[in-house]
Design a protein that fits this description.
Length: 264
């Protein structure tokens, strides 16, 4: 039975209707699963995190290659099916809950097709965790924003934070026809590898992240105007660089200089 037929069968047998709000579009192309595992160079020493395990298609492939799989599933209905589908495999830990709130054990790699609606929050969550490599399927538009160049229409806080924390590679295209039900967008396999060392030094990483996200809510304003809320919490006389530049014109390194100036 192919994965499309199996998906339809499991949905019908368990009376499950995919929820758009939860981004439930199931990837049904085994070739993509195999390539993702290869891109992550998964081996038997790895503990691999999978977010949005669904019916366990990718989970089963991962379990055959790695030491342990942490399979996270938010939907109670799917988690129940997942337990039944994978009960014969002893190296899978199924975690039912929200990846952004659940207690997740340490892991070495991430291989996942996460729900698109949590992509931004998931990226921030990952940047706060220690891992060797992450291979994920993201919506094409989101992936393009991760690698956007300064001044482009896609350039924003995602590109700045991604530049600081990770090497980003856009790998295989994943057309919408490889999902059931089909989403309205195409996707791409993305590989993230933490940067060591970081490209520039920061006095306060949390301030840097907050600053970047806040300033891009006012991307067309000059820095002197966009940054006023931050100046209320800094000592008088702080010299703010790049005052006459617009936020969208700042390179990632410039945001670092700005954050360090506000940390003094």
């Amino acid at each position: 039975m192919g994965l499309l037929a199996e998906t339809k069968f499991l949905l019908r047998m368990n009376r499950i209707f995919p929820k758009k709000l939860l981004g439930q579009n199931f990837l049904i192309e085994p070739l993509i699963f195999h390539r993702m595992i290869d891109y992550a160079m998964v081996c038997n020493k790895d503990v691999v995190l999978e977010i949005g395990a669904g019916f366990g298609f990718l989970t089963r492939f991962l379990a055959s290659k790695c030491g342990r799989v942490l399979a996270v599933e938010f939907d109670t209905r799917l988690a129940k099916v997942l337990r039944e589908q994978l009960k014969d495999l002893t190296n899978i830990q199924i975690i039912e809950g929200d990846i952004l709130k659940a207690a997740i054990p340490e892991f070495s790699k991430v291989v996942s097709v996460p729900p698109y609606h949590i992509s931004s929050r998931l990226l921030l969550w990952l940047l706060n965790r220690s891992f060797d490599c992450a291979v994920l399927v993201f919506q094409r538009e989101f992936a393009d924003r991760l690698v956007a160049s300064v001044g482009s229409g896609d350039y924003g806080w995602l590109a700045v934070l991604a530049y600081y924390y990770v090497e980003v590679e856009l790998l295989d295209d994943v057309p919408r026809v490889m999902f059931y039900p089909q989403p309205k967008v195409d996707s791409v396999v993305v590989r993230l590898k933490p940067k060591k060392p970081r490209p520039f030094a920061l006095e306060n990483e949390e301030l840097f992240k907050r600053l970047v996200r806040l300033l891009f809510t006012q991307r067309n304003k000059k820095v002197r105007n966009a940054i006023s809320v931050f100046l209320k919490n800094t000592r008088s006389g702080t010299v703010v660089p790049f005052c006459d530049k617009r936020v969208r014109e700042l390179a990632p390194e410039d945001f670092g200089v700005l954050a360090n100036a506000l940390s003094l």
